[in-house]
From TrEMBL:
Location in or out of the cell: Periplasm
Record-annotated Molybdopterin oxidoreductase domain positions: 2-378
GO biological process, one term: anaerobic respiration
Record-linked SUPFAM superfamilies: ADC-like, Formate dehydrogenase/DMSO reductase, domains 1-3
NCBIfam families: formate-DH-alph
InterPro entries per record: Asp_de-COase-like_dom_sf, Formate-DH-alph_fdnG, MoPterin_dinucl-bd_dom, Mopterin_OxRdtase
Listed name of the protein: Formate dehydrogenase
Family: Belongs to the prokaryotic molybdopterin-containing oxidoreductase family.
């Protein structure tokens, strides 16, 4: 979230699109209710189903699953053609006036630089035009035909209300209602928030859907504003912490990135991560990368990370590809993986295309499961009749189960969607042989280290030299690990401006990332978390919820990254002179001498408010409507159909076969020949959650099984009538990849849509069933989905696929 849960109460307009917060985030959803009650907020839901959130909304509009970019592109078109944008904000704080390179082009769904054989882009032309001084050329009059504003207008001109109706199935007047309500927040005194989750992310165009939402918020001047923002309602408890810590294949902690295969040279690696300024007088925060990177290397390898060995740069893997889960499971099916550790992860149930995942698991030599529970993955080798019909005797994979504790059985911090790190305390002793994840991982590490030390081995230094300064080597405490993330001084640190002034004594905790150094004198495991455990103690354990201004920021409750800031980019809530756009909801303001207010100011260096623009993480200082080379599909979000799609062509660019599906969609070998044909699979399937279950584990809990006892699928009344299916009857739902059998719920909540003249029905498949359960067994929803992913995030397309429904 750019903002935070409580801040939703400050919104005038709320759009939930691509999420169902009333169902999946019922506790945080109360802030939507607060906004409605105390702020008369207008609350809108756009979803293929009239879902639980829609049932308490002021307004609901249907949309065909997989078509959100048409809808949101249509909103951009509406805002630009009707001139409903926040002019001052857009002019000063975005790249509206920046000029784009002359060789950048777009034609019928494809940008310049496309190689159809390799399905990749050469992104060279996707850039601003630079002057001789190295800075981007701008045209403040906005008349230059290649300025971002003119490009935007041109790119979205075809995204008309009529197109939205015919491609998304959203009636034109409903679409225009959403446009009008969002547009009402272009004025400084009003603000809209956008709340989203998997209905946006789990598409092969997912990352671009989110971008389109963010572009709308920028045009409206709603980023950095109380009650505004782009707010990802995150999933698992602490999944925010997972991304913060970089537990993704290509990431390092704090959104630093691993080198790729071509980056063998340390200086080159650092140089590409410390970009040059693109506009005069700006400040690019990533220029601090070496301080964060070196502090991280010191945390991992201690004395073994030296200036001479480039701070152990050679110890980092250099990636030849992104080893995300789709990739690993593809390699597994090809017999290229010996062993796999599933830690708190149930891939057989969770990952797309379960049948292919199972084939991969069968080819492993060994599989380690770290989980408090038995899972489908830990039992993949066991015959469960129709639900997991395998021949156990033929499976050679050796499976080890290492029982872990769960969160209530250990101390630690959980990071919420709000970026708030909140400490919690152990409530119970673990049962049986269960050990904490830290103890298990430490045990593995120490044994591997001992083996390498005894027997030697190729390039063992990254393991044998790992810095391990914990009191009990086989069980570091949560406190020790948390303090390491924050960082500490390794020697006495003096003020760079006044070398006689001591700021930190050797061993002392750092106060924030501003104290990190690139000369090996500081250590810190996750720079964005610096400040969470300072010399005055554990900031995450703070529990003072006082809120002097009433805006909801509670700066003394736990601790938020970065720097305890509650609303990111809050500098953008004020004009260039530092005067709040909305004097009624002040986050920060400039009093002529300094910044102050209800939040930690997001300003770079010095206090001159007129010089440095608010988006200091970009070398141009402003937010990008033109994404330059940042996205795989192109600088402007563009509509493509899903891998499985009901039309077989792209109704936005009907004359171009290259642009039917995303031209850079990740299509795994395991997805080959698995694309569904609408002739065989005419309905649009989607998967989702129910409040009463949490993924695949609450089916071990009797109470949850009582309230939600049996697997079901939802179809609309029209489809029910067409197929002669009534509520309570058993149906089979199949895709090109597999099938599920379940009880039908025939509902008014799903209505047929007319898409480019063709009638389309949606079929809803809740995800929670499987065969490892103390309740009734069911089929894995992911029997239906394909091994394809978004070209940027590699997220599987769980939200749109083609199915056929039959009565059994
Ligand atoms: N009770 C409960 N709560 C949970 C979870 C749980 O398992 N149980 N899981 C947690 C996790 S890990 C996560 S990630 C979150 C997920 O939170 P959400 O994303 O809110 O949950 P979902 O139910 O997966 O999907 C949300 C909505 O997306 C809609 N949708 C499908 N396709 C499209 C589309 O193309 N466009 C639009 N606009 N909408 C579409 C679906 O109809 C559904 O209403 O929930 C978290 N909360
Ligand atoms: N078709 C379809 N597929 C989906 C989705 C969808 O909407 N549709 N949603 C996707 C999303 S957003 C998610 S997040 C995934 C969820 O997929 P998973 O994360 O694989 O599902 P969970 O059942 O939550 O599995 C987490 C496991 O962690 C264990 N666990 C709990 N606490 C601890 C602990 O402290 N330590 C360890 N080691 N283990 C612990 C639990 O017992 C559980 O077995 O599913 C994804 N798959
Ligand atoms: Mo999730």
């Amino acid at each position: 979230m750019t903002n935070h849960w409580v801040d939703i109460k400050n919104a005038d307009v709320i759009l939930i699109m691509g999420g169902n917060a009333a169902e999946a985030h019922p506790c945080g959803f109360k802030w939507v209710t607060e906004a409605k009650e105390h702020n008369k907020a207008h609350f809108m839901v756009v979803d293929p189903r009239f879902n639980r959130s829609a049932s308490v909304a002021d307004f609901y509009a249907p949309i065909r699953s997989g078509s959100d970019i048409v809808f949101l592109g249509g909103v951009i078109n509406y805002l630009l053609t009707n001139d409903r944008i926040h002019h001052e904000y857009v002019k000063n704080y975005t790249d509206f006036s920046f000029i784009v390179r002359e060789d950048f082009a777009f034609d019928e769904g494809i940008f310049s630089g496309y190689n159809p054989e390799k399905r990749t882009y050469d992104k060279a032309s996707w850039d601003y035009e630079l002057g001789e001084d190295g800075f981007v050329k701008v045209d403040p009059t906005l008349e230059h035909p290649r300025c971002v504003y003119q490009w935007l207008k041109k790119h979205y001109a075809g995204y008309t209300p009529e197109k939205v109706e015919s491609i998304c199935g959203t009636p034109k007047e409903k679409f225009l209602h959403v446009c009008e309500k969002l547009a009402s927040t272009a004025e400084a005194g009003r603000v809209a928030t956008i709340l989203y989750a998997l209905g946006w992310t789990q598409h092969t165009t997912g990352a671009q859907i989110l971008r389109t939402g963010a572009m709308i918020q920028l045009l409206l001047g709603n980023i950095g504003i109380a009650g505004g923002g782009m707010n990802a309602l995150r999933g698992h408890s602490n999944i925010q912490g997972l991304t913060d810590l970089g537990i993704l294949s290509a990431s390092l902690p704090g959104y630093l990135t691993l080198p790729n295969e071509a980056e063998q040279d340390y200086n080159q690696y650092i140089a590409t991560r410390t970009p040059k300024l693109l506009r005069p007088g700006q400040m690019n925060y990533w220029s601090n990368t070496p301080k964060f990177h070196v502090s991280l290397m010191k945390a991992w390898w201690g004395a073994a990370a030296t200036a001479e060995n480039n701070w152990a740069f050679d110890y980092l893997p250099k990636l030849d590809k992104q080893y995300d889960m789709l990739q690993i499971f593809e390699m597994m099916t090809q017999g290229k993986v010996n062993g796999y550790i599933a830690q708190g992860f149930n891939p057989l149930a969770a990952l797309a295309n379960s049948n292919s995942v199972r084939e991969g698991l069968k080819k492993l030599k060994f599989l380690v499961i770290m989980d408090p529970l038995v899972t489908e993955t830990s039992e993949f080798w066991k015959n469960h009749g129709e639900f997991n019909d395998v021949d156990s005797a033929s499976i050679q994979t050796e499976v080890f189960r290492l029982p872990t504790t769960c969160f209530a059985e250990e101390d630690g911090a959980v990071v919420s969607s709000s970026r708030v790190l909140q400490w919690h305390w152990k409530a119970a002793e673990p049962p049986g042989e269960a050990k904490t994840d830290i103890a298990i991982m430490s045990g593995l590490h120490l044994r591997l280290k001992a083996l390498y030390q005894k027997e030697g081995g190729k390039f063992s230094e990254p393991i044998t030299n790992l810095y391990w300064p914990y009191a009990e080597a086989d069980h570091p405490s949560s406190e020790e690990v948390a303090k390491e993330y924050n960082g500490r001084a390794l020697v006495d640190l003096f003020d760079p401006k006044d070398p006689t002034k001591l700021i930190r004594k050797a061993g002392e905790q750092l106060a924030g990332f501003g104290e990190m150094r690139d000369d090996g004198t500081t250590l810190g495991g996750c720079w964005i978390w610096a400040g969470s455990w300072t010399s005055s103690g554990n900031q995450m354990a703070r529990r003072d919820n006082s809120d002097p201004t009433g805006i909801g920021n509670t700066l003394n409750w736990a601790w938020a990254w970065p720097a305890n800031r509650r609303v990111l980019y809050n500098r953008a809530s004020c004009d260039r002179q530092g005067k709040p756009f909305n004097p009624e909801r002040v986050l920060i303001k400039w009093n002529g001498k300094q910044w102050g207010g209800a939040d930690v100011p997001d300003v770079a260096v010095g206090l001159d408010p007129e010089v440095i623009n608010p988006f200091i993480m970009n070398p141009e200082g402003v937010a990008r409507l033109f994404a330059r080379k940042g996205m795989a599909e192109g600088p402007f979000p563009t509509h493509y159909e899903a891998f499985d799609n009901p039309l077989g062509y792209n109704p936005m660019y009907p004359n171009n076969k290259q642009a039917v599906i995303s031209p850079v969609m990740r299509i795994l070998a395991t997805a080959k020949d698995t694309q569904g044909d609408p002739k065989d699979y005419p309905h649009v399937g989607t998967t989702y959650r129910l409040t009463e279950h949490f993924h695949y584990w609450t089916k071990h809990v009797q109470l949850n099984n009582i309230v939600q006892p049996e697997q079901f699928v939802e179809i609309g009344e029209a489809l029910g009538k067409e197929l002669g299916i009534e509520t309570g009857q058993k149906v089979k739902v199949s895709s090109k990849r597999g099938f599920v059998k379940a009880v039908a719920v025939v509902t008014k909540r799903i209505k047929p849509m007319k898409i480019d003249g063709k009638t389309i029905h949606h079929v809803g498949v809740p995800i929670h069933w499987g065969f490892s359960t103390t309740g009734r067994k069911g089929y894995l929803a992911n029997n239906l989905t394909a091994s394809v992913g978004d070209g940027n995030s590699l997220t599987p397309e769980s939200k749109t696929f083609l199915v056929k429904v039959e009565k059994i």
